[in-house]
Amino acid sequence: MFRYEKDSINGVELLKFDALSEKKNIVHCFTTRAGGVSGGGCESLNMSFKREENRKNVSENIKRVAEAAGVDFDSVTMVPQVHGGKVRVVTEEDRGKGVSRESFDEGYDAMVTNIKGVTLATIHGDCIPVFLYDEKACCIGMIHSGWRSTHARISRNAVVAMVENYGSKPEDIIAVIGPGICQNCFEASDDVYEAFAEEFGKEFTDDLSVCRPDLTRKGKWYISLPGIVYKTLIAAGVLPGNIIRSGVCTCCEENRDKYFSHRREHGKTGAMSGFIMLK
Ligand SMILES: [Zn+2]
């Protein structure tokens, strides 16, 4: 379903999904910890400007990933992520914003585009990455879905943006849910539980695959963000057979060497990035 590829120059290790790799017209990847220049808790391939003071390190890391992935550094475009539900429709004029150029004026947690040669890049430290591709309508999307954005149904919003702007049909869209925090690792309190219960109702509260109470501690819940993202994509009209779930957790102890995790490291760590570009 996916494989790790290591570049021979810097040892940059990238995860790639077969369902997207087999498509001729796109480039995509999800980064790991390996192959960068950052030190300390950000060792080594930290992709987030917010997580370390040395911007040069992050720029160098992004350059290395761009090279390994086969995209231009100047094409990498990042929005200021704000844990909301808004989607940016990225135009030619936005190319490079937030990385090699000035930032966007507003915050977003997803991007869509139909412009070739613009790399949509999101930042993840446990939050769920979702890659979207519609081969027929020739457009892509990249989503950062933490719990608030998942609650705001950002995956649906991104599908709708592709439908409205590019004439996509949801049934033509391939969606890949990449590495992010799993249900066992995402322990949440009543406030998060109640927010989801109010928004999603029984499909949340009565489904153990997305919401499980902690039987030993009152007021603690285990919530599956990838599971809710999946349901949201289905409700938006994406076909079950076109949704690929990685099942990879960034926070599980066994993946400590592979991925940064905001929760596992109590915030003192780096972050990964999801890239997607139309060729
Ligand atoms: Zn986990």
The top level CATH class name of the domain at 2-167 and 254-278: Alpha Beta
Number of helices: 7
Give the biggest sheet.
6 strands, mixed
- Helix percentage: 10-25%
Layout: helices, strands, pairs:
Blueprint: E1 2-6, E2 13-17, H1 18-21, E3 26-31, H2 55-69, E4 76-77, E5 87-89, E6 110-113, E7 119-124, E8 128-134, E9 139-145, H3 147-151, H4 154-166, E10 173-177, E11 187-189, H5 190-200, H6 202-205, E12 211-213, E13 220-223, H7 225-235, E14 243-245, E15 272-278
Parallel strand pairs: 4-7, 5-6, 10-14
Antiparallel strand pairs: 1-2, 2-3, 3-15, 6-9, 7-15, 8-9, 8-10, 11-13, 12-13
What does this structure look like?
- This protein has 279 residues and is an alpha+beta fold.
- The protein has a domain at 2-167 and 254-278: CNF1/YfiH-like putative cysteine hydrolases.
- It contains seven helices and 15 strands.
- It has helices at residues 18-21, 55-69, 147-151, 154-166, 190-200, 202-205, 225-235, and strands at 2-6, 13-17, 26-31, 76-77, 87-89, 110-113, 119-124, 128-134, 139-145, 173-177, 187-189, 211-213, 220-223, 243-245, 272-278.
- The strands form three sheets. It has a six-stranded mixed β-sheet. Strands 5-6-9-8-10-14 form a six-stranded mixed β-sheet.
- A hairpin with a 6-residue loop joins strand 12 and strand 13 (220-223).
- The longest helix is centred in the first third of the chain and has 15 residues, at 55-69.
- It is globular.
- The model has no long low-confidence stretch (mean pLDDT 98).
- Bound molecules: zinc ion.
- Zinc ion binds at residues 182, 184-185, 249, 251-252.
